[in-house]
Amino acid sequence: xxxxxxxxxxxxxxxxxxxxxxxxxxxxxxxxxxxxxxxxxxxxxxxxxxxxxxxxxxxxxxxxxxxxxxxxxxxxxxxxxxxxxxxxxxxxxxxxxxxxxxxxxxxxxxxxxxxxxxxxxxxxxxxxxxxxxxxxxxxxxxx
Length: 143
Known about the structure:
Order of helices and strands: HHHHHH
Strand content: under 5%
Oligomer: single chain
């Protein structure tokens, strides 16, 4: 059963990266990073909410240590991609700083995504406030 959940999580991660990687590449070079962060946030929410069974999969990934490892590895790969995009955008940013900022940004995003799944009726308010918080956090690093 764990192998099936792991395989499903890895397949969904591959789908997510296929959608997100081009967006991160655009973020790295575009004139409007805020627009790109909002688009990325919207895409992640869309992917999370439209995929059948995501709420159950998220619960499963947090239910057992061997599945938590899968979740943390996926999170780490996303942080690596986000940090690389930030360093491409701001070449003076150190690798350590980019990793820390990407970790915080991803922690915020994952928390917001989980909350949107748990409270779909509050989706718009959560996205608006969460997006604003994320932009304010990133501004000192990206402006």
